[in-house]
Amino acid sequence: RIKTLRECQTCQSASKTSSSVVNQKC
Amino acid sequence: MIHLYKLNGYDIAIDQNSGAIHVLDEDTARVLACFDAETGEMEGTPEENGLEGIEGLDDILSDIEELKEDGKLFSPDIFRPMAGDLKEKQSVLKAMCLHVAHACNMDCGYCFAGKGEYHGDAGLMSYETGKKAIDYLVENSPGRRNLEVDFFGGEPLLNWQVVKDLVAYGRSIEKEAGKNFRFTLTTNGLLVDDDVIEFSNREMSNVVLSLDGCRETNDRMRKTKDGGGTYDLIVDKFKRFADARGEKEYYMRGTYTKYDLRFTDELLHMADLGFRELSMEPVVAPPEADYALSVGDAPVLTEEYEKLALAMIERRRQGRPFEFYHYMVDLEGGPCIAKRISGCGVGTEYIAVTPEGDIYPCHQFVGEKDFIMGNLDEGITRPEVRQMFRSCNIYSHEECGDCFAKLYCSGGCAANAYHSTGRVDGVYELGCILHKKRIECAVMMKACEADDAARAVEE
User: What are B167-187's pLDDT values in tens digits?
Assistant: First the structure.
């Protein structure tokens, strides 16, 4: 019924406009 | 807080603060929808909510209570106190957008940089200024080992020799300085040749290659100086570039506008060309521009993100997957909480430097004199600008308080917020809507992938 599916790079990589911190690598 | 949504047949609950993700059956989703998203208590009795007919209701309620006790559902916000600590911390520089060329060999209709010149004088950065910028980054990054330098423009390949010389300079000092430079390059592709490919594949940790999709879409906005299309001039070069990258990162980076809201087809076109790492961003534009996006476009765009997610699932199942930047979300780890609270580092960890050596909070503020922070000779002469950004975090955005996505988007882009609301700590409404939809899609894709993997094991 319930299935439970939580040095960095400081918007440098692919997105110059959305600052997706979550996509960064840490 | 929890966020409940249904997508592609999956009922999903995202626990805002713990980041736990749960896939629910329909009955459980119905039950959970009767809980107050904030307090975690059921509003009214099961009977008043019409739940009495659900088989195994007691088990469902018991499972929900167990997850609450485990801190995986309706978990409290333990991070807010950290926001104050982070604000008080002295910011340490880490990344620099180096504008080596305020000039461009294209004439893109939507260029936020005013045809590459940032509404100022055209110019190329000298080696001496670039060297000074790298020295500035090294001197102002105590305690940091990894430093990022993005060669940006305009079109940086118009100043290619200086780019190469600056990379060589960085490499010559990094060992003694105890630093590790990660250089990146953003290019429109017109001047890509064997030398650019070979050098970049050796020295650039990432390259961003600008292409908007198929010929018709790309050439609508991305034009040569004499008004011709650019697709046929760059696609073969980009294919050679991407093929030669090997294991190193690259991104095809498109921009969509009011004229091409159906961007999934453009991404699939790029995938069909053989590109595997794709990114597509909403245009940055003054609201009065005919190609500008508005909140009124949100229904079409959110539907498009869903369509893209389904197309990517299908291609993965067919054995020809590709990556989409915004759907690459690490649900179990990812950036530390400090990064998630403080965001991209604009004006604090990240600065942009112009060909003349002026310092701005980021590339999107370049040319806006109110935001000039200082220059390479004198350093930060307007600390109040830096302080403005240091105060920015997800807890300074009033609108973000109870948003499920705040620890994914980190408050969004300060430049977009400023240009749409006049406040760097405002919220760019359309960007916010799109970001939430991307997170929903990315999580659903993970659920689907887990399902497929479980099914494969069973078979």
Answer: 999 999 998 899 989 798 999
